[in-house]
């Protein structure tokens, strides 16, 4: 963890280093992933089976490729009732939030008599990556699957690795709840390639979303264009802007809720009170000692954590914009004043009683958010990621007479005579 | 050009071959582009200058990197008046269409007392690639620049190659009209990398859009994630669905208006009348002989053109969906009935008096559209490509009391105790 003071000499340079810090895996995964993708494209089923045997240590010919809907339904029914209620609440609230994202079609006629508009429709099929192992989060499944279903996607195919054949029942329960249509027990770059190109029993999809490790992220990047993808995901981060009126323990827990995800995550506190900063730092240390995820969280906090002291919280906001954080908590009495100054952030958590964890699970907005400064240009996952827009136009003779001559002039200037001719032929009155 | 009959034996196979035909450049540009991108990332200004000298044959130290706004304004003023009026009309109509795409912010409180919403904002800076040489289209510049300006982008930096130092005055005029803020005379993969990372006098941007050759397209693909991009563009295509009541000459010109762009473009006619099909094929041959772009158009038509005869036009629509064409003309009296059956298309041109060329220039909808079957999942360029959405939520003590327990249950089930603690600390009444 580094401590920075915006008033200190050398701050500009130190903060720039913080902004530019690359927390990406240093392993060169690009080449490995390219080989896997090419292998799956060429050999399909056989490649996926071989890679799964080698990397996940189970034989798809024995375990089967798919997990039956009935198995998912049974996993849901077997949930501890409190957990099932929590999952139900999360699903209902996520659905309600995303319903509001559904775009509206348009169809109008302008003053030139030209009919214009745009029509939205869902993709036919979406693929959903769900990580296995310690990052197997049923909440992520809901966050990816529900927007797809709200968009109207008819076929939602999920892939999830089952290392050593081990299935995570929580994930299956969430798949049932979210209305996932197919569950395939494969993972890694090979699973992304199988979704994009099809492999064995898996038909190709149009869009692939969902979190994953560096291999999965790189596979999505390489297959972008073959399929649509949600975004290039990287290590995630939280920025908390807090004044001294907060309980340091609350803020420490908020910072650690990001740190416990992964050793490459980043947690940054901006505060206008150096004594409060010390109190939070001490609370983090105390909480780390009692946290089951303390080892990971400590590593993340020590390597990437930061506490920045500023003269006023308003002064922090341009610095926050440079970080363009995935998550931004504004733990003050009047968060709107600060929020009005925010230009780049994935999701913003307003006020002292809105810890980021609420947004991870049940609030409703999507928790799949742009990471690694990408909130400068990218948005959280939404219904729009599973839809596409078809524009349309229609002219009658009168409208064509009005727009035709300009079209001909521009086509000729661009050296495209067939373009000009397609209009000129229609304009001729003496045919 | 191939002729297919949907009723003939072997049609399914032949049509699948048409759908799957790869028209991408076979050259392996991936490696070349990766080297250029790495070079620009590492050596910035010097790399761009060296590549420009080598590939575009002019010395940036002599010609200067930028073109002054005054030069663009002068080019606009010097336009032939008819052409200037045409360009003005195009810009005004494109602006009017895209104004309607501006998203609406939301901010509401739900029944649990949770404040929820989403706020849209423009990216800070966008980069616009404008090809040089024969594909230097002022219309493309308008189609890329105007949505960015409508979105509210403050800094719009355009790159365009000036091979041998030659500047295209039409492009400069369009840049002036569209409100481009910076014009840089560089092109190719190195220009895309310069926009993404910054180089010399060029500051980095957040989003890069615009058409280009295979190198430019691959550079955008490789830099996706460092910046946002509009889409992966490939060879473009038109599908015309026409009955026998059309003038074959009109339809022939429509097919050729796509073919004349490039030898890898594809033009496909679906018709329910074999005699009409013959007439169109004959008209294409006649028109090719008198077309200044005949050499390119003939090559495209002969290699990739197709005429498909179907029993009824309704029967054509599922086939059209499999092609997911960039452009779809429905040249019939009642295009809406057919349009209602279309699931995948970039832009649809309704009725006999709506040649695709109208959409290329002045109608208003964007002509930057998903190619190569990508209309299955992608949309045309829009204002949204230059904006991002920040979601937000805010809870008070009451709302947190309602959503907190479910959050704790889910966080504990996912093995994330700091998440649970950040909520539990706030729920404690006895602190």
TrEMBL record, chains A, B:
Major enzyme class: oxidoreductase
CDD domains: Histidinol_dh
Amino-acid positions noted as binding Zn(2+) in the UniProt annotation, renumbered to this chain: 258, 261, 360, 419
Pathway: Amino-acid biosynthesis; L-histidine biosynthesis; L-histidine from 5-phospho-alpha-D-ribose 1-diphosphate: step 9/9
Annotated substrate binding sites: 236, 258, 261, 327, 360, 414, 419
Reaction catalysis annotation: L-histidinol + 2 NAD(+) + H2O = L-histidine + 2 NADH + 3 H(+)
InterPro entries: Ald_DH/histidinol_DH, Histidinol_DH_CS, Histidinol_DH_monofunct, Hstdl_DH
Alphabetical list of Gene3D superfamilies matching this protein: 1.20.5.1300, Nitrogenase molybdenum iron protein domain
Residues annotated as the enzyme's active site: 326-327
One Pfam entry name: Histidinol_dh
Binding sites annotated in the UniProt record for NAD(+): 129, 190, 213
Example of a GO MF term: histidinol dehydrogenase activity
Described function: Catalyzes the sequential NAD-dependent oxidations of L-histidinol to L-histidinaldehyde and then to L-histidine.
The protein's name in its UniProt record: Histidinol dehydrogenase
Native organism: Sphingomonas aurea
Gene: hisD
């Amino acid at each position: 963890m580094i401590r920075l003071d915006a008033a200190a000499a050398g701050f500009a340079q130190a903060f720039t280093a913080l902004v530019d810090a690359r927390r990406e895996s240093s392993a060169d995964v690009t080449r490995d992933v390219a080989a896997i993708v090419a292998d799956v494209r060429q050999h399909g089923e056989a490649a996926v089976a071989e890679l799964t045997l080698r990397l996940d240590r189970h034989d798809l010919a024995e375990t089967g490729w798919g997990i039956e809907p009935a198995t998912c339904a049974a996993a849901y029914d077997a949930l501890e009732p409190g957990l099932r209620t929590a999952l139900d609440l999360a699903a209902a609230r996520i659905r309600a939030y995303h319903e509001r994202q559904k775009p509206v079609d348009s169809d109008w006629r302008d003053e030139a008599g030209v009919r214009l508009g745009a029509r939205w429709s869902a993709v036919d099929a979406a693929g959903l990556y769900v990580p296995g192992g310690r990052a197997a989060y049923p909440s992520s499944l809901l966050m990816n699957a529900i927007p797809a279903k709200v968009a109207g996607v008819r076929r939602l195919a999920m892939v999830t690795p089952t290392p050593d054949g081990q299935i995570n029942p929580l994930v299956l329960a969430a798949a049932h709840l979210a209305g996932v249509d197919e569950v395939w027990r494969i993972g890694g770059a090979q699973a992304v390639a199988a979704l994009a190109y099809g492999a064995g029993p898996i038909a190709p999809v149009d869009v692939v979303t969902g979190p994953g490790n560096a291999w999965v992220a790189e596979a999505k990047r390489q297959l972008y264009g073959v399929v649509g993808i949600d975004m290039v995901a990287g290590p995630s981060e939280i920025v908390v802007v807090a004044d001294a009126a907060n309980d340091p323990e609350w803020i420490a827990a908020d910072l650690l809720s990001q740190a416990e995800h992964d050793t490459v995550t980043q947690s940054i506190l901006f505060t206008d009170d150096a004594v409060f900063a010390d109190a939070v730092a001490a609370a983090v240390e105390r909480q780390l000692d009692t946290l089951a995820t303390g080892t990971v969280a400590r590593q993340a906090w020590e390597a990437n954590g930061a506490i920045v002291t500023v003269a006023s919280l308003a002064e922090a906001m341009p610095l926050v914009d440079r970080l363009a954080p995935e998550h931004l908590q504004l733990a003050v009495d009047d968060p709107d004043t600060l929020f009005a100054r925010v230009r780049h952030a994935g999701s913003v958590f307003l006020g002292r009683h809105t810890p980021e964890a609420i947004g991870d699970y049940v609030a409703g907005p999507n928790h799949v958010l742009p990471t690694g400064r990408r909130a400068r240009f990218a948005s959280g996952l939404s219904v729009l990621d599973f839809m596409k827009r078809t524009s349309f136009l229609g002219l009658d003779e009168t409208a064509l007479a009005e727009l035709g001559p300009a079209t001909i002039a521009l086509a000729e200037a661009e050296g495209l005579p067939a373009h000009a001719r397609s209009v000129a032929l229609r304009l001729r009155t003496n045919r």
